[in-house]
Every structure is written in C-alpha cells, then in structure tokens.
Amino acid sequence: MSGTGIGESMGARGARAKALAVLRIRGRAVAAALLPVAVAVVLFAGAAAGHMEGAGWDIARWVVAVCALIVLVTAAAVTTVIVRATPALSPTVDLPERSAPDLYRLVRDLAERLEVPAPSALALTPDCDSWLEDRSHPAHSISGGRRRTGEAPVLVIGSPFLWWMRVAELRAVLAPVVAGTGSAADPDIAAARRYVRGLDAAVADAARPGRGLMGKVVARFVGRTARQLLRGCQEHAAGMERWVAAAASERAQAVDYGLRIVAQEQVGLAYAGWDRLLTRVALPAWRMGRWPSRLDAGVVSALTELSRRDRLAEGFTSRLGERPACDLLEEPGAVDEAASLLAARLFHGGPAGQGPDWAPVDWQHYPEEVVDRKWRTEAARIHRVLDELGVPPSRGPQGPTLARVIDHLSARPGGEASDVLAAVLTARMAREEATPEPVPAAQAAADGSEDALALWGGGDPLPLMPLQPPRSGRELLADHVVAMVCCTAVDSVGAVPGLDWLDGPALLVDGERLADLGAPVLSLVEEGDAQPLRVWLGSLGVRPEKPVRLV
Q: Is the pLDDT of residue 529 over 50?
C-alpha cells in the first residue's frame, strides 16, 4: 500500500480511503475464490498427519477437492477475462509532440508548478471538455509503441478550447485537470481504477453479439459475475473520483486561480457556440455528404457573431487581439481538419475518409456546395412525392413550380393534406437513408482511422452521439417547403444562398438575411393557410408559378 502518494490534503486522504475500500472488495472476492482450496488443503493435511480418518472424511476430502478445483478454474477464467478485456477509450485525435511542441511545453510547465507528474501525451476531442485518460492497456497503443502500466495518463483537450481561448485562459482551465495526474500516480488509486475499468470492460465485452452457444453461456456467466463485483464497489469508486476531483481542485488553487474564474465563462460560451455550430451549420452539411473541414475555426466566427447580437456577450471580441491557444500548434489547419472529420463520424456516422459522396468543404464554398444543394435536393424530393401521390404536375416549360406545392397544401383547410404528404415524405427519406453509402475503405486503411475508431468505439454503431432526435413528419415537410421557397427566390429575384454562423443555411436578398420565412411556412403546413406565405412572396416580388431548377 502507498504512503503519501498524492499529498496529505483532505481530498487526497479521502480518495485513498475510498481506493482502499475498492481494493478490499477485490480482496474479498479473491479470498472467496480461494476458500474452498484452503479447506481442501486443511482436510488433506489432516489426513497426512493421521487425523480425520475414515470413509466419511475421505469422501469429504475428495468432494471438497473437486469443488475447490472447479471454483479455482472458474475464478481463473473470470480473472483472465477481466484482465484481458479492453477498457473503453474516448474517440480522440492523437497530438504528437512534434505537432504541438509549445503546447506540450505549456502543459509540462503547468505540471511543474503544480508539483505533479506531467501527462504522458496529449490528444484532442471534438467537444468542449477536458480530462485525463489512462491508456496503459496494451490494446490502446494506437499511434505509438506499447505503453507501460503506471505511466502518466493522457491529457485530452477539447479542440474548440484551442481556437476560442487565449493561451493564459487555456492554462488556467487545464490546471485542475493536469493536477489530477497526482492522483493517477498513487498506486492504490491506480490499482482501484484498473480494477473498476476491468470489470466495466468485462461487462461490456459479455454483452457483445456474435458468439456461439457455449460462448454465450460463458460470456453470460462472466458478465453476471463482473456486474455483481462492479455493483459492490461502484459507490466507493464514485466516492474515490469525487475525492480525486476535490484534491485536484485544491492543488490547482495555487495556479492562476483568479484567471480561471474568468476563463470558466469562456468554457460555457464555447460550449454554446460549439453546440449551435454542430446542430445548425455542420449537421445540414453532413446530411448532404459534405463535412466542414474547419469546425474549430467556425466556433470563433459563431461566437463573434453571438457577441455582435447579444449584449450579454459584449466585450468578448476584445479578447481576440490576444494570442489564441491554437498558435501553440504547428499546423492548426491540419489538426482542425482531423478533429472536424472525427466530429462528423461521432455525431453523424460518416465514413472514415474522403470520397465522392463524403468530401470536405471549406466555409467559403459552404453556401454553394451545401446550402444551394440542400435546397434543390429537398425541392426535388417533395416534387417526386407529389408525383407519387398523383398531384397534377402544374409544370412550366423548364421544371416544377412552388405554386404546385402551395396549391396542394392549401387545397384542404386545417392542414389535412400535410399529414399524407408528410407521411409519404418521411417514408421516402427513410428509404434513402437506409441505402448504405459507399465507404472509401482505401483512404480509411491508409491513415488507420477506421481501426482506431473501432477500438475507441468498442464496436458500437455510429454515430456514437447523435446530435438531434429524428424529426417529425411535419418538421420534415416544413423544411422541404422552405427549401422550395428558397429555390424559387434564388431563381426568380436573384436571392442567393448564404451561411449564418448561428442558424445555418440562410436566404440572402441584397446581402441581408431573411429570417421571417418560418412563420408563413408553418401556417401553410399546420393550418393549410397559404395567405401569409403569398404575402411574404409578394413583398419580395417572387412568382410561385415560375419554374425552378432542381438537382
């Protein structure tokens, strides 16, 4: 057992006490497995000494010996599965020291000031969070040699932080995280964590499909045993992590404490901007087979736009004159691209590499390659559905018209026509999404990203973290009507597709964004009332009977 591995603060003592409680539970499990062996040894030792003789004792000795052998073999098998099970690993982008020497230097200087071991490596995650992760398991050696048990954990940093935060703010935010390496160096806490991770990995491994009958029986038994052991120590393990966090926070108070209070505001702001960027801007592109290759840089634009609109965010843009944390990277663009592709895989389930149906797009070409294509694809889809329903074509000499959609939805009051159209539209989209897209395996195999994510995700289906629940039928229909309206405006009055950093695809007329289209479209879809939309179209001079160009 350790002595004073992580100091003598109250948090350190509490963490070690909880770790010892976890290890005691492990010790009881080992003792329970060895108890039949100990009884058998006593019985055979008694016979060798001339005691415990007779037929009854002989039968007892052999019965206990057989039971001890069965228990010992079973315990050894369960222990082997727990030890060999691969713990879950967070999906990240590896950041070798040659790619960010200044960032490594900052982290090491911070660890030296905190008087804790420096993290063994750095990695980035496409999320607004930072943590330490133990990757000492042999299966976790993805981008380098085998890591040793007891090596310092990896520091995982949220990639949006590097682009939005200034260098001093990043150092202040990372201080409590880096301070946690002191706890990771304590042998009792490290042993308790390995035990809990092994149990958790064994439970997850037992639930995986693809085994034969005998394999399922064994996996079910091992999983049930590991689940019982995990349930017995989970309260102590959770308490240990709370005390570890308290110890790290206490240690980090000596470093940039005042600045960290201010920097925490930037954490919340970055999270809000990142979430808005993913759901409003990136998701439409992913659905069109394009992935924005500069998502982290887009966070800066989104939050700058937020500061312009929201008085609560005033003053935040004045920080932009200071040195951004992304300057600590040798090639920020390449790192941003890797994090953006990983974000697309995690939140949408895209392929691992580039291809004709899955290509990167920069922000300059986003309106043309994403917005315009999205509108025209959805406009074409709604007209194909109208064709399936037998709605009169109402076509001009060059293509379908918005008037056809408006006339159909407003033919019956109360939005009755919307229900049928929405149902057929939803079914068509489900069929299109069920058709698997070709995965560019050559690119995935070339950079190894497919194998890495398979290890990280543990075989779970992608996306691991969907951004939004499935849209309802009428929501889909409203989106398609909006697309049809925008296509008509672009083709008839010279409007252009644009990008709003907070709201995604936007319709621009004379350089100004039109944000009041939602209410007239909802009136048409929900109530079958086309008058508000006709008034809106008339105010811009849009003629719904004019044909539009579709894809």
A: yes
Q: What are phi and psi of 63, to 5 degrees?
A: -65, -45
CA count, 13 A, side-chain hemisphere, 249 = 9
DSSP string, 404-434: HHHHHHTSSGGGHHHHHHHHHHHHHHHHHHH
Chain segment 270-285, per-residue pLDDT in tens: 888 899 999 999 999 9
Q: Which sign does the torsion angle of CA 415, 420, 422, 425 carry?
A: negative
Report d(CA 411, CA 87) in Å as an integer: 59
Report the alpha-carbon distance of residue 383 to residue 31 in Å, rounded. 71
333: helix, strand or coil? helix
Q: Is the pLDDT of residue 217 over 60?
A: yes
Tell which residue, 287, 282, 319, has the closest CA to residue 298: 282
429/448 Cα distance (integer angstroms): 32
Q: How far apart are CA 340 and CA 324, in angstroms?
A: 19
pLDDT reading at 335 higher than 90: yes
Residue with tokens 């108070």: 253
SS (H, E, C) 256-310: CHHHHHHHHHHHHHHHHHHHHHHHHHHHHHHHCCEEECCHHHHHHHHHHHHHHHC
So what's the pLDDT on residue 6? 45
Question: Where is 64: in which H helix or E strand?
Answer: helix 55-84
Q: Which residue type sits at 64?
A: V
- What the block records as the tokens of 543 is 């003629």
Please, what is the Cα angle at 301 between 299 and 302, to 5 degrees? 65
**Per-residue pLDDT at 42:** 86
What stretch of H or E contains 124? strand 121-125
Cα–Cα dist 391/395, whole Å = 11
**Res. 120: pLDDT tops 50:** yes
Smallest CA-to-CA distance from 266 within 175, 363, 173 is with 173
pLDDT of residue 520: 93
Q: pLDDT per residue over 138-168, tens digit each?
A: 666 544 444 555 578 999 999 999 999 999 9
Q: Are 177 and 106 in contact (CB under 8 A)?
A: no
pLDDT digits (tens, 9 = 90+) for 351-372: 777 777 889 999 999 999 999 9
Can you tell me the distance from the alpha carbon of 468 to that of 348, in angstroms, rounded to the nearest whole number?
Answer: 10
The Cα–Cα gap between 188 and 20 comes to 7
| H-only helix segments in 282-401 | 283-287, 295-309, 332-347, 366, 373-388
How much is the pLDDT for 451? 45
Helix %, strand %, coil % for the chain, to 5?
65, 10, 25
Provide the pLDDT for residue 316: 60
